[in-house]
Amino acid sequence: MSGRGETTREATPRAPLPTQDNMTEQQKKKIVHIVYIIAALDITWMFLQFSVTPYLAKKLGFDTLWFGYLQTTVGLIQLLGGPMFGRFADIFGARAALSLACSSTVVFFLLLAIAENPAMLFIHKLPTVFMHVLPACQMVVADFSAPEKRADALSKIGLCFGIGMIAGSTLGGHLNTRFGETFTAFFGAVGSAFSLLLVLKFIPKTTKSEASGTNKDSENKSKSIFNVGEITRLLKFPGVKRTFVVKIVAGLPSGIFQVMFSIIALDFFKLKPEQNGYLMAYFGIASMVVQGGVVGRLTARYSENSLLLLSIGVSSLVGLAQAYMQDVFQFCLTVVPMMFSLSVFNVITDSMLTKSVPSSKTGTMMGLCASVQSLLRTVGPTLGGFMYVNYGISSIGLIQFVVNIAVFVHLLQRHLRKTAEHQQ
Question: Do residues 87 and 363 touch, judged by C-beta distance below 8 A?
């Protein structure tokens, strides 16, 4: 009997692994919705951490410049890890990538909870080399969305960003005020573990189409992860290098302000943890309105080049306004246009870049996009700390105005020249 049972089990054909090719549209939608939840939770834990690190750093004796060095360390680590993580996601699939990212986040928070000296505050940043939940989520959404609807689908992750910003900032501010930094960090570790459970339960092994896979990738997986040539080869696709340059140059000034904001809130605006949480929640509401109600409609009506120009133009005006602000109320007036320019700029550039490469490379491309943000976080804190200490907050806004106006004029001239060529 047992022999026949074993024979029967051996003869039973295995169910094929779920891939994009054998999934129904309903299954794809369910996975994308789960991915949005994972993204919202990851942003929640990230902003929860923002309610801990600046205040813990201040207790441990960090000044503005040393806090800038701490932020630079994170940017450098993620700059190195982003492209490799993206390659890992393309080769080993969405479940493995998201599991690695969520597990690293758990370790990150546990190390933060036991950080009792400046050295430990630097050590707890090491797991950020693998903490790329958002790029992995973007890869899944890009894999499951049609090219013409990709910008709208990616903007929904921005909506999740707003939700997470509100939840994480408010929750982090309250927990830090009432229970302290250690409890808040442990709470983040538990939350990240829950995100990991969602990944293991609902995310398929791969989201790639079977047709997009390559034999070379499957033959030598371990070496191809660290194949820098294969990663940089994506820059040779038409339009990719130019878009990357625009993403870096136009994004650097606003990136400086973002990474310095926790210090600006603490030192310039004199905000307490709970007040800072409310302000970040306001950011989240503005982001939700823009990402949920504006970006999708704009991408359906206007070309990506036009929206890129618009976002850079608005960003330059935001920089000019921030150069002359004096208090929190004046800053709040700039938040909506700031979130608009950031949201449109990031969604449009990510959409343009993923469309420029084969579908089998979307993970690597999103990893490269994440490395751009990491590059901004690498040079931003040190440069921003120097500018803030020596020239004040107005210098950061003026740099943003000048750089974005220059990029705007360059892109506008190129756009007009191309339009004239098509009309001839």
Answer: yes
